[in-house]
Amino acid sequence: MVGMSGESLFPALEPLLERVSKPIQYVGGELNSTVKDWNVGGLGDDGVELTTRWALMYPDAYEVGVPNQGVMILYEVLNERPDALAERTYAVWPDMEAQLRDAGLPQFTVDGHRAVGDFDLFGLSFSTELGYTNMLTALDLAGIPLHSADRGVEHPLVIAGGHAAFNPEPVSDFIDAAIVGDGEQAVLTVTDIVGEWKAQGRPGGRREVLLRLARTGGVYVPAFYDVDYLPDGRIRRVAPASDAPGVPWRVSKHTVMDLDAWPYPKQPLVPLAESVHERMSVEIFRGCTRGCRFCQAGMITRPVRERSITGIGEMVEKGLAATGFEEVGLLSLSSADHSEIAEITKGLADRYEGTQTGLSLPSTRVDAFNIDLANELTRNGRRSGLTFAPEGGSERIRKVINKMVSEDDLIQTVAAAYGAGWRQVKLYFMCGLPTETDEDVLQIAELAKRVIETGRQVSGRRDIRCTVSIGGFVPKPHTPFQWASQLGVEETDARLLKLREAIRADKRYGSSIGFRYHDGQPGIVEGLLSRGDRRVGRVIEAVWRDGGRFDGWSEHFSYERWMRCAAAEFAAMPWDVDLAWYTTRERDQNEVLPWDHLDSGLDKDWLWEDWQDALDETEVDDCRWTPCFDCGVCPQMGTEIEIGPTGKTLLPLTVLGTGREALVEAHQH
């Protein structure tokens, strides 16, 4: 972080572009991207730089990372500050990695093509743990020592965020800090602290600025916490280090309460290369209280906070004007649960009637779907397939996971959809859920057959399709299933094989049912990384040194490599721990879990009671509409559920109609 250059590396990078696949992903210059002056904050009287500089990374390929809402929001929030700048970087493919190493060039940003090592802060957003090896590649290419303990004042502070940061212990050797929860206000606080420390001449070096961050209570610095283990390998306790005064016992998550006050992204990025989502997205609410016991996202983002109908309308309007996209995704964990979803979809469909602007909900709950909603979503756009997520094949397993949807609910919903002209429905399930048997999974085949039969009856057509998509269940921290054992690879694959045979066996339906599934191998590795402790870092590093890259991509993932490296690293440890100890072992109530000192707001006793309810097949209602179940979030975090209805309506003004001229005129002035 000393003697920064910030020069563009593009003249040296340009000759490499013709030698790699998809070179456009490294070029930058997307619509609405930002390149600020390196010294945008100016210099102090004593010549000290007054700019705080962030390199933001989504540790996956450009096409996956560029539409990521989290990074896009932080990029914009930071660049709005006059004394800060933010640029983006993504994981480079192995062909580009080889070219960079041969040419002696570092990990670079796509905005200004500046060296990542020149920035003050290197922020990584992890939505999945399978991006950890990509982080190590980026650190190594950037010339940043892999281990935080080896870094000096001249290196960026490496900060992790995103859902996986709720258990950062497996990467605690490699990161300097982690931020849990919403990032908008958190990155501004960090920017203030780092900016002040820089302006003072970096007193106390790296350790001092990390202490200042840790003492806020909202930034976790692993180096300031000591972990003690029991002889059998379990954790005895995690405590603040004796030489880190003022560091809290528990680190709290950040929660942005008024989403209307944070209408980001205002200027969504429009990628030059093809990306996984060719649409503009607006987050219509954050959090979920449905209480699905497997769902980490729903648990850690509580409470529910809705954006108002007028706030949503304004974001859609500005976003379409800024991007030219023809599809708007209304995002949240369960979008049809917004208290004014009918008014939102009708208002937007009315507003953009006849303009080719389509609306989409990424995934719709079976019991929140209705034909009126579906018709509004398709009024102006194309009629795409519908996706529903029953998650469990049998009524019994749906009670275990608290997914309160009956088979009849599902059949009535798909009957309505097929009757209204849809031809294709996608159903998402999980395999390997706690207490699951072969019979629970084979019920999926029966359900799919009923769906096809129902579709044929109500539509009078034979070209009805249903795709069954299966994901492997991975127990996650801060959920009632954090104590559960994970199903092993062989058992998972055997169960999926039986299901495939059951679907194919009935010739009347087999050809109408598509079947997609992930085998058990990546899930076991994800399980190791999601519930691992600090010792797992040695496995991640060994896998990376052995060539591990892009573990979220089936063509790059090597199960054999992970198994070999895990066996070697665990064998060298003084405890009797192995892969099964971290994955297929059930934990008991009193075990100290690696993430217990990170406070998601959820009371551990409440989570344990919910785990017992799961084993008893007891369902729990959604606390949005019923009395509080005392999960702990609202009182502990000083927050509360914020939902409508507001009673407001959307005005018909639209950028694609009367509004375009007004916006052009406003821009000119």
UniProtKB/TrEMBL annotation:
Gene3D superfamilies associated with the record: tm_1862 like domain (3.80.30.20)
Domain of life: Bacteria
InterPro entries reported in the protein's UniProt record: CHP03960_rSAM (IPR023862), Elp3/MiaA/NifB-like_rSAM (IPR006638), Radical_SAM_N2 (IPR045784), rSAM (IPR007197), rSAM_horseshoe (IPR023404), rSAM_sf (IPR058240)
PROSITE patterns tied to this protein: RADICAL_SAM
Radical SAM core domain location: 274-512
UniProt cross-references to SMART domains, sorted A to Z: Elp3 (SM00729)
Gene Ontology molecular function terms on file: catalytic activity; iron-sulfur cluster binding
CDD domains for the chain: Radical_SAM
Protein's name according to its UniProt entry: Radical SAM family uncharacterized protein
